[in-house]
Design a protein that fits this description.
The chain is α/β, with parallel strands linked by helices and 242 residues long. Helix content is 41%, strand content 15%. It is built from 12 helices and 7 strands. A 5-stranded mixed beta sheet has the order 3-2-1-6-7, with helices on both faces. A two-stranded antiparallel ribbon has the order 4-5. The longest helix has 13 residues. The relative contact order is 0.19.
């Protein structure tokens, strides 16, 4: 067992930094220093791929597309539609109100019917930045990143800010790295700090790649936790070890 934020950093060759993980079921923001996660600087966001797929379907049901065709879509088809057609806007409000910035796309469903996406293309992933669109009161991913970095001790903050990495399948939306970078630089503007975000083309499986790397390190061997230890100390022991 190991923290996926730490493993995501390992995939980038780092042991200190901030991991922004956007997966299928949940998103996390985790600050890590020299391989140790800051538990008090770890935040959870209940917006991830599964929620975005459902949101996309509901948006399409309000579109001019044939409702009977949309109702017949299977979950895996909606996920494929999302991956193939959706992207993150750099100016959501501006794009939403200016038809000139809408770039329609067409998708052929397995049954042969065609579905046209308009503003739904960039509205789908926007809840990552504005959870209120899904009726959630949590701050957006970029605000959680700021909160996490503010919890990091002063001596480690500079290195953490300098190593912000993206991870998870739902971080693969075109425009997502650029938008995160833009939002973080806006939040950090008063500090004079220029934020850069690391976004590997293989970031969708970064935690798995990092797990393979971490498990092969000699220094990792002493952190293995036995079943006996777990049964003796309980679930809380995980946080002492990792």
């Amino acid at each position: 067992i190991a923290n996926t934020g730490f493993l995501s950093l390992c995939a980038y060759g780092r042991v200190t930094g901030l991991a922004l993980e956007v997966g299928a079921g949940v998103s996390h923001v985790t600050s890590v220093c020299l391989g140790q996660t800051w538990r008090e600087a770890t935040y959870r966001l209940g917006v991830a791929g599964g929620f975005l797929s459902s949101y996309l379907h509901s948006l399409l049901m309000e579109s001019p597309n044939d409702p009977s065709v949309l109702k017949a879509l299977k979950k895996k088809t909606v996920i494929q539609l999302k991956k193939q057609c959706c992207y993150v806007s750099m100016d959501y409000e501006g794009d939403l109100h200016d038809q000139g910035y809408h770039h329609p796309a067409r998708f052929q469903a397995p049954d042969g019917h065609w579905i046209t996406l308009d503003k739904e293309r960039f509205c789908c992933p926007e809840p990552l930045f504005q959870p209120k669109l899904l009726h959630q009161s949590s701050p957006g991913l970029h605000h959680l990143a700021l909160q996490s970095l503010q919890k990091v001790p002063d001596h480690a903050r500079r290195d953490t800010v300098g190593n912000i990495v993206l991870s998870g399948g739902s971080s693969m939306f075109p425009g997502f790295p650029e938008r995160i970078c833009l939002e973080l630089n806006t939040l950090f503007h008063s500090t004079g700090c220029q934020i850069q975000v690391l976004a590997s083309p293989e970031r969708g499986t970064a935690a798995w790649a990092g797990g393979s790397m971490a498990a092969s390190l000699t220094s990792f061997q002493h952190t293995w936790m036995s079943k006996g230890k777990y049964q003796e100390h309980g679930a809380g022991y995980i946080h002492q070890v990792f």
